[in-house]
Amino acid sequence: MKTRYLVPDDYMADPAVHIFNDKLYIYPSHDRDSGIPENDNGDHFDMKDYHVFSIAEEVENGAVIDHGVVLQTEDIIWAGRQLWDCDVAFKDGKYYMYFPLKDKTDIFRIGVAIADRPEGPFIPQSDPIRGSYSIDPAVLDDGDGNFYMYFGGLWGGQLQRYRDNKALESAVFPADNEPAIPSRVVKLSPDMLQFAEEPRPLIILDKDGKPLTAGDNEKRFFEASWMHKYNGKYYFSYSTGDTHLLCYATGDNPYGPFTYQGVILTPVIGWTTHHAIVEFKGKWYLFHHDCVPSGGVTWLRSLKVIELEYAADGTIKTIEGTAK
Ligand code: FUB
After folding, report:
1. Ligand 1 centroid to residue 270 C-alpha, Å
2. Quick check: pTM over 0.90?
């Protein structure tokens, strides 16, 4: 399949994608030109609302329906700024949207909003999840009644400000030869509104069984967690941030440890890279974004999709990004 841009008339990024009621639903960030200068904290990503999109037919050419604004900062009473990458899960007749947002003290928390339908609107809870921090929540429905959230992001995502789920006095980055800062995994409470336990580090090992180090920045986690299952294995995929790769690691259970496997997507035009992997109508797809339509403007990203293929041994075939 040729790469398809899905929303040519607007800027959408960070897709989370799920199949609900036999339709494919896309939950992206909604980029806008805020005029805020670019910096390493990502202040230029000053998004204020979410749209939901759906596709009922083939991903290759089916109509992409825009369900409009489904949640916005002005409806969230604890909101400071910056609605970044969200995800949605379904349980017992309700749809739960998980979204990172800076509170009024400029600290990222993860909030929850609830809808009766996958296309929203989503009504936010009055407080963020207790004990939540950082960005990029991705939720796995493990199929046995348990839901797990994967989250975290470095630099502007503030993950370097936490150790053992406690805020540090100031950010600490490990030395290059020390274990990398891990993303986090946590089981959700039965009502889907809180963490059921303390978040745990998600450890990625190299082929020798050693944790990836902070200096291994072509492999170590940076942001954009996504989890999917294939042939009974857990595939944790993520962005390496400053080296602009989408990579993945596999494991036998939702908590890991995971073993690094390789690159899913080489760099695209634009600084960030962020994705979802999903099966629909018998094919697997990589939803992601790049900045080709905006002429390379980092904070104006466009949603796209391409087919993803596995080799017979379950490894994912590397896809060339748009930077080549
Ligand atoms: O969209 C803002 C941030 O950029 C996301 O949270 C990151 O994953 C990166 O794509």
Report:
1. 12
2. yes
